[in-house]
Amino acid sequence: MAKAPPLLPSEILRRVLRVARFGGTLVLAIAGALAVVSAAAGDYLGAAIGVIISGAGVFELHGASLLRAGRAHGVNWLVGSQLYLLLSVLGYCALRLSHLEIPTVPPELASTIEISANQLHMTSHEYLVMVYRFTFQLVALLTLFYQGGMALYYHRRRAAVTAALGQRGDEIGG
């Protein structure tokens, strides 16, 4: 079977723009909504973290708009948005892991947690601490791989995006 030819720079640019618009909008919408919900619940730290993380979506959308305007340095904003999001989430996870705040267990789940804890020869509190730590460690690990991968994705497409913008320079106005 023949190998497919490499994508044209213009197609790579279209794909980068599509990914950036989708990713930026998604981060902005989810983090913004969580910030509002946290603020409404009186969790001002959670609201602040949501606003901080929303910034990554704004940065990514800004990078996409720069690329649409024909400015190749928009790729810097795309890479930077991923690194900013990565550091923001890792900072949040580190904060939560250094200040354990085990939430109150709803009565409907208490017996299930007790059974699970007993199977592991733990108290309910020890079990909840283990689950809490595991959850934030998993979020940190997944963020490291995903946001790191996205930063690399944008970085590796820099030359093709710059070439595509050079080809489109007359259409865009410079």
Structure characterization notes:
This protein is an all-alpha fold. The chain has helices spanning 9-40, 44-68, 74-98, 107-119, 124-156, 158-167, 169-172. Helix 1 crosses helix 6, helix 3 (74-98) packs antiparallel against helix 5 and helix 4 (107-119) crosses helix 5.
Task: Considering the chains and any ligands shown, give keywords for the structure.
mainly alpha; 7 helices
Tell me the number of strands. Answer: 0
What's the rounded overall pLDDT mean?
93
The structure class reads mainly alpha
Give the ordered list of helices and strands.
HHHHHHH
Termini Cα gap: 41 Å
Instruction: Please work out how many helical segments DSSP would assign.
Output: 7
Radius of gyration: 21 Å
Beta-strand fraction estimate: under 5%
The share of residues in helices is over 70%
Question: Main beta sheet, described?
Answer: none
Q: Unreliable segments (pLDDT under 50, ≥5 consecutive)?
A: 170-174
How would the global form be characterised?
A: elongated
How would you sum up this structure in a few lines?
Helices cover 82% and strands 0% of the residues. The protein is built from seven helices and no strands.
List the helices and strands and how they pair.
Layout: H1 9-40, H2 44-68, H3 74-98, H4 107-119, H5 124-156, H6 158-167, H7 169-172
